[in-house]
Amino acid sequence: MKEIETKKFVKNKFSEYYQDHSSSIQPPTLIEKREFGFLMFKGRVMVRHKSLKNVDDLAKSLKTLVPSDAYYSSAYYERPEEKMEEKSWLGADLIFDIDADHIPTPCAKIHDTWVCNNCGIAGKGVLPEKCPACGEPRFNEKTWPCEVCLESAKTETLKLMDMLKQDFGFSSKETNLYFSGHRGYHLHVESEEVQSLDSMARKEIVDYIIGIGLETKLHGLVEEKEERKAGILTGPNLEEPGWSGRIARGTYEFLLTATPSDLEEIRLKRKVIDTLIQRKETILETWKEKGPWGIIKGVGTASWRKIAQHGAEMQSAKIDTVVTTDTRRLIRLNNTLHGKTGLKKIEVPVTGFESFDPFKSAIAFKEGTLKIIVQDAPKFRLGDQTYGPYKNRQVELPTAAALLLLCKGRAKVKEEK
Amino acid sequence: MKELDLKIEDISELILNRAEHRIEEALLYALVSTQSRKDEIEISSFPVAVMMVASTTDKLMKRRYALAEAKRSYNLLREEKNKSKILEITSAFNWKIRPVDDKPPYEFALFFTEYLRSATRFQAKGWKLVNRVVLNGEVYLTKDDTVRLLQEEVRVHIEKKLDVKEKVALPQNVADRVERLKQAFTKQKGKIKMEGFPKEVVVSAFPPCIKHMYDGITSGHHLSHIGRFALTSFLTNIGMTTEEVINLYRSLSDFKERLTRYQVEHIAGARGSRTKYIPPRCDTLRTHGVCTGMDEICRGIRHPLAYYREKMRTIKAEVPVERA
């Protein structure tokens, strides 16, 4: 079966889905002020600058166009259907995107593959800058939405949510959390107060979340020197709000778990590393009893600063920098299908997030089975069942599992004779 | 003017003198200092001065004046001991702010969106949100922080007032004063020499980030969207032609001439909205991971184009004069 036919097959399935589920489509708030964009199966073209009046219009568009992916603008416009320059921007929601692509995970080596576009040589794990065989920099990359990756995305999302709630004071009413349908989570903040923020202000929020430009000195980590005495290091407490407390807590947690090679990586001197490892218990003890940043013989201010900087880094949330700063971004629509997985983007209840299972909740196709020929797929789970790994094998799988492999380009439909 | 019930023809010489003096000081020394002992002169000379500056079309002159007046308000407020006086002024700008008593050295807490509106224009690291105490949507501020943010708000407010579209008609005696001020300012401007970029592109004067991308692209390396935008806008701004920039991208394996041409021409301002784009500022490049680390010159500038200008200067200074 040719690739074009797989595409057609998937499109038919998507079409069936939108015919049956058009009532589950949720319109974004102020639908008439949004721009819509639909990525088409045919030619991978984006049909955009669409304006829709209500949810019926939206359902109709999905049913008739059958896009592989459906988007709406984070922005509100006076005239959403016009060219970019003539839309007249009114404001935009504040959007955060946490994608496993931005977080290096150990499992990428197992399930992510690449093929050089030029010479066809293949490899696993993170993309090399140049092909090791022919030196060309263009690859066909195949990632995989795996549990470990999504778990690390969840950890980052939890850190982000903590900052948005504690530091920025957003209520749970103003924040909506979604599973993207692929490899990450989206967090939308919809409130009047953030709508008018310009790109520069959003950039500052991004820098805050990632900890870019963070200076431990400005959070009170300073050496106080009296004449003819050794300096005394003072710094923020563990319970302090905002980044001050995060620096202290991050440092504590880093010391708690750091191995000699972790400490080497932040370029501490051999002697300092030895001291920190040998006296770890005592250091952590004094942190608990007398507060942080006590004097440890052999660990100077410069070393502490490096440790604190790294500790702080561990507290930051790895969000996508471009999505949040772009005030005219197209965002995947809730409850629509993801063209790379056949799963849907769904809202995640904030309270139950820690136990949320994307591979269960995001399943769109719940009935029937499909016969497919799998070229190459890692072991994966969907719902309560585990599948694979498969290599050049014909299998009959539940529709959702089969579609995932078809959408990911790892399988073809078995031709019925 | 209406509020004070003043007619332009009736303005006394005293007020006009004070207004002219305000502007003169602002333009020549970037400050507004001496105060007239009479409040009414002090108060009414300000709108008169605003009107006089607004009547010119000189943007630089307007900016200069707004900044000096804003600085003056900063200096006055800095001395203010009474918190409620400061709060009164913030309420004129509709700030969501409240006094804080239990968190020294902080005296105020301001809602973060309002903080960002002004603070993003400041360059010092201490103004970055990530280096502030932020709790429950509020940024904690000392009195000096608050007054400094107010200065920025005042500056923007005055600039808006000065930016009038229709022509302001002034009586001859006032127009003469404005003319005199303009001439004095032009003379002053002559001292601040505006340097353009040389016609030739000097690769050795590129900032490290641009150099890195430039070298990468010429050896066929992949470059992020924002990287391509930064590189292209930088090159078109320092005088590289559209054709030369397109050729640069030719070595990429995914090169599509039509698409590249469209994008480069767009950035160069030859298409679409006709805006010629300039590269993002250093801290924006840092946010998106384009910055490759700073060198000595980087520490003194905030924009890749400023780096280029600065480096060109040092390169020129190093070249020995060959002609006798």
- Overall shape of chain B: it is globular
CATH topology of the largest domain in chain A: DNA primase, PRIM domain
Q: What string, H for helix and E for strand, traces the elements of chain B in order?
A: HHHHEEHEEHHHHHHHH
The pair of chains with the biggest contact is: A-B, 42 and 36 residues
Give the second-level CATH assignment, the architecture of the largest domain in chain A. Alpha-Beta Complex
| CATH class type of the largest domain in chain A | Alpha Beta
User: What Rg of chain A, in angstroms, do the CA atoms define?
Assistant: 25 Å
- Please report which band the strand proportion of chain B falls in: under 5%, 5-15%, 15-25%, 25-35%, 35-45% or over 45%: under 5%
Q: Averaged pLDDT of chain A, please?
A: 91
Overall description:
The complex is a heterodimer of chains A (417) and B (324). Chain A is an alpha+beta fold and 417 residues long. The model of chain A has no long low-confidence stretch (mean pLDDT 91). In chain A, α7 packs across α11. Chain A has a four-stranded antiparallel sheet, with no helix packed on it. In chain A, a hairpin with a 6-residue loop joins β1 and β2 (46-50). Chain A folds into four domains: 3-99 and 150-205 and 320-363, DNA primase, PRIM domain (Alpha-Beta Complex), CATH 3.90.920.10; 108-142; 216-315, Helicase, Ruva Protein, domain 3 (Orthogonal Bundle); 365-417, Ribosomal Protein L9, domain 1. The N and C termini of chain A lie close together (12 Å). Chain A is built from 14 helices and 20 strands. By secondary structure, chain B is mainly α. Chain B folds into three domains: 8-55 and 167-191, no CATH class; 76-154, no CATH class; 203-318, no CATH class. Chain B is 54% helix and 4% strand. Chain B has a four-stranded antiparallel sheet with strand order 1-2-4-3. In chain B, a hairpin with an 8-residue loop joins β1 (97-99) and β2 (108-111). In chain B, α1 crosses α3 and α4 (83-92) packs parallel to α6 (143-162). Chain B is globular and about 75 Å long. The model of chain B has no long low-confidence stretch (mean pLDDT 86). The A-B interface holds A 85, 117-118, 129-130, 135-138, 166-170, 193-194, 196-198, 200-201, 203-208, 210-215, 218-219, 241-244, 321-322, 325 and B 111-113, 116-117, 119-120, 125-126, 128-138, 220-222, 225-226, 252-254, 272-273, 283-284, 286-289.
